[in-house]
Protein: phosphatidyl-N-methylethanolamine N-methyltransferase
Organism: Saponaria officinalis
Amino acid sequence: MGIWASIGVIIPFPFYDYLWKNPQKWVDICGYGNDPCKIMAYVSHFLKFIQFISLFSVSSLFWPPPFYFWPLFLFGQFLNFRVYQLLGESGTYYGVRFGKSIPWVTEFPFGYIKDPQYVGSIMSLVACLSWVPFQYILLWCLGYFYMIHVESEEDPTTRAEPLN
């Protein structure tokens, strides 16, 4: 099960990498009248489901979790929720790359934590270390670190032209 769980954990990252580097192709694939951010969100949610199933397949759950679980997990999820609350679907799912105008946000956690959604996700994953073998958490976190690097090198000239 280890190799399949590993593949399941890393499967979203080539998709995100492709979309970041080829936004016009994604907008064209989505077609006129379709929101590329919404379609990316649907695909991302499906891939996230595969990631969770993959982790669950190698996990050993017990109750109660260790003391560090709650603060890490809750603050990590708070950061994720807050980013989505402030940016919305289009801001979270590469809207700026797909030719949308996304307003600049400065409220917490932006301006205080670099890459707050990834930081929140990593915190939530680390919280689960007592249940999930280290190598799967590390692999998932490496995927996030890779995307932080990819997304830090945005070239505005490669942004897509919206079809609608």
Remarks:
- The mean pLDDT is 94.
- Residues 106 and 112 are 9 Å apart (CA to CA).
- The two ends are 44 Å apart (CA to CA).
